[in-house]
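Obj: model holo form, ligand = adenosine-5'-monophosphate-propyl ester.
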Amino acid sequence: GEIGDTPVYIGGQQFAAWKHTQLILDAVPGRGGMFSLDNGREQRFLVRGRAFDMQEIDMLDPVDRVRAMRAALADDPHRFWLDQARRISWSRFPTRSDDSSFDAGDFAISWFSDGELNLCVNCVDRHLETHGQKTAILFEGDEPGEGRRLTYRDLHEEVCRFANALKHLGVGKGDRVILYMPMVPEAAIAMLACARIGAVHSVVFGGFSPDSLADRINDCGARVVVTADQGMRGGRPIALKANVDGALAHCPAVDSVVVIRRTGADVAMIEARDHRWEELRETVSPDCPAEAMAAEDPLFILYTSGSTGKPKGVLHTTGGYLLWANLTYDILFGGRPDDIFWCTADVGWITGHTYVLYGPLSNGATTVMFDGVPGYPDAGRFWETAGRLGVSVFYTSPTAIRALMRDGDEWVERHDRSSLRLLGTVGEPINPEAWNWYHRVVGEGRCEIIDTWWQTETGGALIAPVPGETATRPGSATKPLPGVHPQLLDADGALLEGATEGNLVIAQSWPGQMRTVYGDHERFFQTYFTTYPGKYFTGDGARRDADGYYWITGRVDDVINVSGHRMGTAEVESALVAHPRVAEAAVVGMPHDIKGQGIYAYVTLNKGEEADDELRRELRQWVRQEIGPIATPDAIQFAPALPKTRSGKIMRRILRKIASGEADGIGDTSTLVDPDVVDRLINGSESAF
Ligand code: PRX
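Output (holo C-alpha cells):
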C-alpha cells in the first residue's frame, strides 16, 4: 500500500517509501506483521495474498538499500545494528549491540550479547514455511554430473538426524567436534547439526596430514571426529579415514569417529570407536529441537597460520558471525531469489564456512558444493558445470583464475556462460591481468568483478565493491563495507591520510570479528592488538589511492599466501628442522606466476651431511608428510650459513630479496656477523629449484 513519504523499516532496513509504489513486507498471510515508522511508532498490517520473505524485499533497488544503510549507520550506529539484527531470527531479540573495545584496559569484543538464537534455525528451519521445496544445496561431485540436490526440507531432516546421532555419541552444548571431510553435503549437514545442539565444530581441511590433524584435535580437546572413507579429487582418492586413524594414535581423548560413505572403499573400522553414518542414521529420529544459544556462545573454531608458533584456533561466536555472514552475502552476492550461487572454496577454509554455507543458507539461497578441482577432467570444468547448473554468481580464487587463464580462452568459450551475472574473487591479491581476463573472457564483459578482501579472523568480507554502487578497478578490493573502518598506519603507528601506503588496521569492531584464540586469550590480544595499540592489526599492507580505493599489497608479517592458502613460515621451518639431517631452516615467500607466492626454504644441514638432489626431494616429501601437500617447498637452497645479526637474528629481509631474484636491492648488510654469507647465498640460489 501507500505509506506516504515517511521512511519505513522493513526487516531491519530503512526504505524511503516514496520511491516505491508498492511495499512488500516480511509476514505470513492472515497473521500479518509489523513495520515501524521513522517516528518510532509501530504499525500493524495484514498481508493479503501470499507470504513474502526477505528475498523479495530485494526487488527494491539494492544500491538504494546500501546507501540507506550507510546513512542510517552514520546517524545512529546502535539503532542501525539492532535494525540489522532483524535480518536473522532470535528466540530473544537483543537490546545491546556493540560492546567492544580494543584497548588494553577494557579489552572486549562483544555484539548483541543479551540476544539468543540458533544458527541452524536461521539457516534451515526458518525457510521451511516459505520455501521448503527450494534447493538449498546443489552438490556436484568430482566427476561431472555426479551430484544430488537437497531441498531445505531434506536438509532439515538430515541435520536433525545428524544432530541426534551426535547427541547419541554424548556430544552436548560447548563440546568440540572435528570434521575432516570432502566437499559433500554431509559436511554441511554435520556443521549445521553441531550448531543445532550448540556443539562447536572445527573443520580441518582434508589436505592436512595426520600430524596436523592430531595437533588440531588435541588443541581443541575434541572427543568426536567426523570423516569419510575417502575423498575424491581430480580422479584420485584421498585416504581420509586412514589419515584419521594415523592422527588418533596421538589423540587419546577421541572416543568416537563417524565415517561417511563417499567412495565405498574398504576401510578399517575399529569396534566401539568407529561408526558408519549410514547405519547410525537409521537409528535416530528426524526431529531434534534446536538449542537456544547466547549470541556470544562459541560457534566454531577454525585453525589458521600466524607469524609464529603453531596454527591458532580462531574462534567465532554465534550472533555476530551469523549476522555478518548474512549481511555481507546479501549485499555482495544476494538479491535474487532464483540465484544459483557457487563459491568454489572448500569448507576447510573460512570462505567455505561463510560463503559456501552460512551466508547463502541464512539468506535462503541455493548454494553449490563442489567436490572437484578446476582442471578435472579438463580446464573447462568450472564453465561446463556453471552452465549445466545455471550458476548466476561465481566466486573463486585468483590462483584458479591465473591457472585457467594460462590454459587458454577456448576452454572457457566452448561453454555457455549466459547464466552468469556476477563474478567474485577472494584469498589473495588479484593481478590486473587476471582480473581483466576474468572480466572479459569469463564474464564476456557483462559481469561485475567483486574482489573481496577479508581473513579467517574477520568472519566475512570487509573491503569489497557493492555491485552497482562502487565502480570497480582491476586489482583493487575497492572500499569498506558499511560498518568497517580501515586505516593505514606507518611503522611507528602514525595515522596516514589521503593517498598513501601503509599497514592496514581496522579501528573499530564489526559483528563478524573473531572473539579469541581458542584456549589462549592472551595470545589473541598480543597477536592482533599490541602492534598498534587500540587497533586490530590485519598483518596486511595496502595502498590507498586518491579516490579512497584500497589496493591490498600482501602480508607484511611472516605469513605467506600460497595459492590463497595461508602458511606460517615458522610452521614450515619447524617441519624442516624436525628432519634428522637438518640443523637450521629459514623459509620465505617468493613470487610465483600461478600461486601468487611460492615457498622458498634455506636449509643448513648438520655437520658432515652432504647436500644433493636426492635429499632435496626427500625434504620436500618430508614437509608434505609433516604438514600436508599445500606446504611443499617450491625451492630448497642448501646454505652453509644464514645471514645473522650479532644478536643471532636471521635477517629475513635479505633472504626474501634473494628468493625473489632481487639481489641488487639487498641494501645494507653491515650489521651482519659475516656479510660474505650474502654473496654465497646469491651465488647458490640458482640451484634451489
Ligand atoms: O593477505 C590477505 C589475503 O589473505 C589473507 C587472509 O587469509 P585467510 O585467513 O586464509 O582468508 C582467506 C579468505 C578470506 C589476508 O590477510 N587476502 C584475502 N583476500 C584478499 C587478500 N589479499 C588481497 N586481496 C584479497 N581480496
